[in-house]
Amino acid sequence: MKKLMKKLETLLELGGVKKDITLLVISGIALVLSLMNVLSLPFDISWVAIILCGVPIILEAIIGLITEFDIKADVLVSLALVASVCIDEDFAAGEVAFIMQLGALLEDLTVAKARAGIEKLVKLTPQTARVISGNKEKIISAEEVRKGDILRVLAGETVPVDGIITSGKTSINQAVMTGESLPVDKAEGDEVSSGTVNQFGAFEMKATKVGEDSSIQRMIRLVQSADAGKAKIVGIADRWATWIVVIALTAAAFTWLISGQIIRAVTILVVFCPCALVLATPTAIMAAIGNATKHGFLVREGDALERLSKVKTIAFDKTGTLTCGTLKVTACKSVSDKFNDDDIFSFAASAEMLSEHPIGKAIVSSYKNQKSNTVVKAESFNMVIGRGVIAKVSGKKILAGNKELLKENTVSIPSYSEIDSYLSQGCTVIHIAADNEYAGYIVLSDVLRNESKNMIASLSRLGVTPVLLTGDNKNSADSIASKLGITEYRSECLPEDKLNYIDNSEKADKLVCMIGDGINDAPALKRATVGIAMGGIGSDIAVDAADIALVDDEVKELPHLIALSKRMMTTIKLNMTFSMCLNFIAIVLAIIGTLNPVVGALVHNAGSVLVIINSSLLLKWRKKQ
After folding, report:
1. Which of 317, 343, 446, 553 is catalytic?
2. Cα(462)–Cα(566) distance, rounded to whole angstroms?
3. Is 470 in contact with 494 (CB distance < 8 Å)?
4. Is 478 a catalytic residue?
5. What's the CA gap between 520 and 363, in Å, rounded?
6. Residue 57 clears pLDDT 80, i.e. is over it
7. pLDDT band, residue 206 (cuts 50/70/90)
8. How many whole angstroms separate alpha carbon 272 and alpha carbon 604?
9. Nearest Cα to 543, choosing from 299, 322, 302?
10. How many angstroms separate the CA atoms of 226 and 212, rounded?
């Protein structure tokens, strides 16, 4: 029996929207045929109505009862259909089935729109890869690529797996990952992600993340894991639906016994079906998830938005969240009469040209972006681990590094209050010497995102308190907090410090949302009421620990997500209140005989359609400024 039920259940689940459209058309035909019977035409087609539009609903009710003893809306609808046909109210039966299928179609269309991103990502998943072995090129399935394989990607092709370019230069369209429409230039040593598109030249790459570990597959998993059924509000609605079925059956039985009119009992069964209560709630959640996806958020769990609506505090990590997460040269100063500021910048860039250190790379990158794409080649280069670099540039011996490097080379460093000020703000200072004379310094810092200040202000207007949790020193944390208008911050935080802050806040009934990007943020992301990870620059561990991932790292959309979660809960509560009030008013009218099964079916199912339409409005909702 269970195997038979399982096969029937699988059959009913096939088709999705297409199945709903087909059943809606059939139900419409049944409704027309039922109307012909109401008009006393010489055709008894009550059996047609029950077969065409009632069997799928009745089957689902029977399967639910037998396999899970699941007493839900389908049970009440099935009883109402059968009872309506038994008392020759074929039109009421057809109407119930028709509007039930219409409601199911609206729900599936809403979910389909919300999940459209999954299908797009799946279509973007690369199917093949060109593997280079020796001097031979072989096309294989992308799933067969192994870590360490050398691949070739031609112009116009999709990057099959994550990797590092080993030879060649090109421009990559990363819209699938970042949402940025402009292609990004890539060269040897740069990372490329699966699913992105090679715009121009061919290049070779070494595979670093393959199969389920690749960026595109991780993105798909994040979207697929969004499940509205996990929300607590849905569980409440389901429990209510069970009790409504029991109440409706009891009311119908007593009404029949007292009045002796079975038509009143049937009307009660028709109007008391809890379709709106059960269907509209998950539809609202999935519509909200669809809206969030359009704004760059991948919601892993449906109840994350429900939890987010109750959050009163948002804790931010600094690096990579409120800042860009990459070092940039923010100041360059010459203290020598022989050189100007540009000379100091040029000396540093040339000396660091061959450096593998992140600070050296940041200096070279900043010079190319701010000054010139051409860097003077150093005549000699020596890297001193833990100190800096020594190079010969344009005939001059250049030292670029920390104080210890200059002291070890007998170069004295004068005291400058400006340097102390930069250091107190958490900046990195690189000292420059030319021919054993102190020449100047370069300041690097992780700059604030342009949108961070406005985003913090918007959160405050929504009644959410922003808090800064950073590993930086107190002076640096104070500087960042004051620039952004954050009044509460914690400096020099270790992972356990962030965890303790969240624990203490939640014990004081202050629900916290944590936003971070690094491995060190993972415990806090997991512990917080809601964890949001920076999906673009964030570590895999941080993303896996979070409930929501911000794909393109656009923190300016955070206020929209908070406002959306609150709007979603308002919509759900409105839907539930409306559906319950409508049901109770209708049942009173049915008990006193004002409503007949036909009008009852119209009132009840029209209410279901209205709340589903109301939920679908969340797909394009945005708070007015």
Report:
1. 317
2. 10
3. no
4. no
5. 26
6. no
7. very high
8. 7
9. 299
10. 18
